Amino acid sequence: MKLTRTLSAIALACSLAMTTACSLTTTPSVTATPSATATANDFDTATAYYKRQNYAKAFTLFKRLAEQGNADAQNNLGIMYDKGQGVKQDYGQAVSWYRKAAQQGYAEAQFNLGAMYDEGYGVKQDDQQAFSWYRKAAHQGNADAQYNLGNMYGDGRGVRQSHSQAMMWYKKAYEQGKADAAYNIAVMYNSGEGVRQNKKEAKEWFNKACDLGYQTGCDEYRELNQQGY
Question: Rounded CA gap, 74 and 55, in Å?
Answer without folding.
Answer: 15
